[in-house]
Amino acid sequence: MRLWRLLWLLAAVAADEHLRDLEISEGVPVGTRVGFIGDGFVGDSGPPYLIVPVPGSAVDTDLSIEQNTGEIRTKVPLDRETRSSYSLVAIPLSGENVRVVVRVIDENDNAPTFPSPFMSRV
């Protein structure tokens, strides 16, 4: 528990925090690339990253994060109805926090059905 508190303290006291928003559609195959932690902003010193999942976010069970590259991939099929987002903090050697939010995009997995194959206009 002491290690967790130390990691959380490091995340809380870092001078700057960047936000990295990523999106991925639900139902993509296992192993699909979600994105990279360091893409898209200035000031990231790059990998390696210390990864601190937000408690209860299921990052450890559903996503695979490569600390040495910052690449994020799916470990399981994602379902928007089960979990709409994942959140973690990545801390590069510079100490600047990168708050990463992965949003799961809803896909139409329940197509409408009709009682008749043909519809007529009355």
From TrEMBL:
SMART domains: CA
Compartment(s) of residence: Membrane
Molecular function in Gene Ontology: calcium ion binding
One GO process term, biological-process aspect: homophilic cell adhesion via plasma membrane adhesion molecules
Source taxon at top rank: Eukaryota
Stretch forming the signal peptide: 1-15
Keywords annotated in UniProt: Calcium, Cell adhesion, Membrane, Repeat, Signal, Transmembrane, Transmembrane helix
Location of the Cadherin domain: 49-114
Main location: membrane
Gene Ontology annotations for the cellular component aspect, listed alphabetically: cell-cell junction; plasma membrane
Name listed for the protein in its UniProt record: Protein dachsous-like
Gene name of the record: LOC113466844
